[in-house]
Design goal:
Chain lengths: 115, 460
C-alpha cells in the first residue's frame, strides 16, 4: 500500500478529479494549503501599499492506494495537473509514501481491505 | 524626528487657531446668530427659532422617523464599523478589533444617560459646556419635548445623540488596533468621551460658541469625523507602530458587509439629523447616497490609475470617505454639491492613505485619520463653499455670495483640531502613566484575540 500526497495548482483540481474518476479512483481527501516553492510569490495592494505575498495557494490531495493502483493514479494526477502543454514552474509535486496499515472504522477491516 | 516635528506642528497649528477663534468668538456678529443657531441643530429651515411659536406639540411623523433613525445609527457601530474594521485587521486580532467597538458602544451608552447628554446638550454655560441639570435624565419626563426640535420627545433626542457619541469614540480605535491594551482602550473611551466629545458636541450643536459663530455642521463633520480622526492621529503617534506593520485584510467579505451597513445606517445619521420627517431629511438622504456613490467611484478610478487594479477594499474605503465628507454638508448642499464633494474626497483620501501616510510614517492602522480626519475636514470646508440657501435657508456658502462662511468653517475646523489634539495627547499621557498603552511584544505577536480575550474568531 502507498500513500500518495500531491500538491497541485488550485486551477487543476477539477481536471485531476475528473482524470482520477476516469480510472475509477474515487477516494480522495482535499485540503487548501499555502506554501513557498520555486514559483515566486505575487503582490497584493491594499490602500495603495504593496505587499509581497510569498505563500502561494495550492491544493493538497491525499490518496491511499493498493500497490497496483500507484502508477495509474500517479499518471492520472501528473497528466491532469500540468498547466499548458509543457507544464510550468509551480505545477506542484507528487510524493509517494509507504503505507503501513489502514483501518475502516465502521467494520474494523484492516490493510488493503480497508482502502 | 519626523514624529516629534509632526506633533509639534500639530500642536502649534492648534494653539494658534484656538487663540484666533477665541478672539473671534468674543465679538460675534449678532445679526446672524439666531438664524445660524437654527442651522446648527439642523432644525428645519423654515422654523425661525426665537419667534413666539405656537404651543409645541409632539409630531408623530417626526417622532416615528427619529426612533427609526436612531436605531439605524446604532447599527453603524455594531456591527457596521466592527465588521468594517474587523475584516481589515489581522486574523489573530479581528475579535479584539470588534470588541473595541462593542465595548465602547456599551460604555458610552451608560455614561451618556448618566452625564454625557447633560454636558453636551444641557443648558449652556459660557458657550463652553452644558450644565449638570440633566444628569441621570433628571427632569426629562416621558412627554418632555426636545428643546432642539420641539416636535419630538427629548428622550429620543438623547438616544439619537448617544449613538453619535458612541460611534465617534469607536472610530478612533481604527488607528490603535493590534497593539493597544484593552484596559487602556476602555479608559480612553471614558476619558475621551467626557473631555473631548461632550465639549465639542456642545460647542457645535449645544448652543456653544461655535454654534453662535455660525459654523455649519449638519450631521457631524467636525464633531464626529474630524474629532475622531485627530484623536486617531495623535494616539497613533504616541503609541508608535505595530511590530508587524502590514495591512493585509483577513476577511474582505466582512469588511464589505460592514461598509454596506455603514452606508445603510448613515441614512439615519444624516437624514435623521434633520430631526424631522421632512423635505430637508430627504435632501440629506439623497445627498448622502450621491456623494457616497461618487466617492466610491472616485477612489476606485484613482486606485485603478495608480495601481493598475480596482480593489474591493478601495470601493469600500471610498464609500466610507464619501459618507464622512457629506456628513457636515448633507442638509445644506444640492446634488451638484454632493457630487463635487464625492469626487474630491475619493481622490484626496486615496492620496492620503497611499502616499502621505507612507511618507510621514505614522501607523494609523486602519486610516481613521486618513479617511475620517481628512474626509471630515474636506466636507466641513466644502460646506462653506457649497451650502445652497435653496436647500436650507440657514446655510449660505461662498458660491452663493457668502465668503465669510469659509472663514467660519476654518475656525470651527481649527478649533476642533486644536482642542482635540491637545486633550487627546494629555489623555494618552495619563493612560500611559496609570495603566500603560501597549501590550507586551509577546502578546502583540501572538495576537490580541488570544492574549486579551482568550478566544479566536473561527474555531472548529
Amino acid at each position: 500500500m502507498k500513500y500518495i500526497v500531491a500538491v497541485i495548482q488550485p486551477t487543476r483540481l477539477e481536471a485531476v478529479k475528473e482524470a482520477l474518476s476516469q480510472i475509477e479512483s474515487f477516494r480522495l481527501t482535499v485540503t487548501d494549503v499555502e506554501g513557498i516553492g520555486r514559483q515566486k510569490g505575487h503582490t497584493e495592494v491594499y490602500r495603495g501599499h504593496e505587499y509581497k505575498i510569498n505563500f502561494i495557494s495550492k491544493v493538497k490531495l491525499e490518496i491511499a492506494v493498493d500497490d497496483k493502483f500507484v502508477e495509474p493514479v500517479v499518471d492520472a494526477i501528473a497528466s491532469a495537473a500540468r498547466t499548458g502543454k509543457e507544464g510550468q514552474i509551480g505545477d506542484g509535486k507528487i510524493f509517494i509514501l509507504p503505507l503501513e496499515d489502514a483501518m475502516r472504522i465502521r467494520t474494523r477491516e484492516r490493510g488493503a481491505e480497508a482502502l | 524626528m519626523i514624529k516629534k516635528a509632526f506633533v509639534a506642528m500639530v500642536i502649534g497649528f492648534v494653539l494658534a487657531t484656538v487663540m484666533h477663534s477665541l478672539g473671534q468668538s468674543a465679538a460675534p456678529a449678532p445679526a446672524t446668530a439666531d438664524s445660524v443657531k437654527a442651522a446648527i441643530v439642523a432644525a428645519p429651515a423654515a422654523a425661525p427659532a426665537p419667534a413666539p411659536a405656537p404651543a409645541a406639540s409632539l409630531n408623530s411623523g417626526d417622532t416615528a422617523w427619529m426612533i427609526v433613525a436612531t436605531a439605524l445609527v446604532m447599527l453603524m457601530t455594531l456591527p457596521g464599523l466592527a465588521l468594517f474594521y474587523g475584516g481589515i485587521a489581522k486574523r489573530k486580532d479581528t475579535l479584539n478589533v470588534i470588541a473595541m467597538s462593542f465595548v465602547t458602544f456599551a460604555i458610552v451608552s451608560v455614561l451618556w444617560v448618566v452625564y454625557g447628554y447633560s454636558l453636551a446638550f444641557g443648558t449652556d454655560v459660557h458657550g463652553v459646556i452644558g450644565n449638570v441639570q440633566k444628569f441621570m435624565m433628571n427632569g426629562i419626563k416621558v412627554d418632555t419635548l426636545s428643546s432642539y426640535q420641539n416636535t419630538i420627545p427629548e428622550l429620543i433626542f438623547v438616544v439619537f445623540q448617544l449613538t453619535f457619541a458612541a460611534i465617534t469614540v469607536a472610530l478612533a480605535s481604527g488607528a490603535y488596533i493590534e497593539r493597544m491594551k484593552f484596559s487602556a482602550w476602555i479608559l480612553f473611551s471614558v476619558l475621551w468621551m467626557t473631555l473631548v466629545y461632550c465639549p465639542v458636541a456642545h460647542w457645535v450643536w449645544g448652543n456653544g460658541f461655535l454654534a453662535k459663530l455660525g459654523a455649519l455642521d449638519f450631521a457631524g463633520g467636525t464633531v464626529v469625523h474630524i474629532n475622531a480622526g485627530i484623536a486617531a492621529l495623535i494616539g497613533a503617534l504616541v503609541m508608535g507602530k505595530r511590530r508587524e506593520t502590514s495591512l493585509i485584510p483577513n476577511n474582505l467579505v466582512a469588511t464589505v458587509t460592514g461598509a454596506g451597513l455603514l452606508w445603510f445606517g448613515w441614512f439615519g445619521f444624516n437624514a435623521g439629523s434633520a430631526l424631522t420627517a421632512s423635505g430637508l431629511a430627504c435632501a440629506a438622504f439623497i445627498n448622502t447616497n450621491t456623494a457616497t456613490a461618487v466617492a466610491a467611484l472616485s477612489w476606485m478610478f484613482t486606485e485603478w490609475f495608480f495601481n493598475k487594479k480596482p480593489t474591493v477594499l478601495g470601493l469600500a474605503s471610498g464609500a466610507v470617505a464619501g459618507l464622512v465628507a457629506i456628513t457636515p454638508a448633507a442638509g445644506f448642499v444640492n446634488v451638484g454639491g454632493a457630487i463635487i464633494i464625492g469626487v474630491i474626497v475619493g481622490f484626496v483620501c486615496y492620496l492620503m492613505v497611499a502616499f502621505v501616510k507612507a511618507k510621514l510614517g505614522y501607523d494609523d492602522t486602519l486610516d481613521a485619520f486618513g479617511i475620517h480626519g481628512i474626509g471630515g475636514i474636506i466636507g466641513a470646508l466644502l460646506t462653506g463653499f457649497l451650502a445652497d440657501p435653496a436647500i436650507n435657508a440657514a446655510g449660505k456658502g461662498l458660491f452663493y455670495g457668502n465668503p465669510a462662511q469659509v472663514k467660519i468653517q476654518l475656525i470651527a475646523i481649527g478649533t476642533t483640531v486644536g482642542y482635540d489634539a491637545v486633550v487627546t495627547f494629555i489623555i494618552f499621557m495619563v493612560i500611559k502613566a496609570v495603566i500603560g498603552l501597549r501590550v507586551s511584544p509577546d502578546e502583540e505577536l501572538v495576537g490580541m484575540d488570544r492574549s486579551a480575550h482568550g478566544e479566536r474568531a473561527l474555531g472548529y
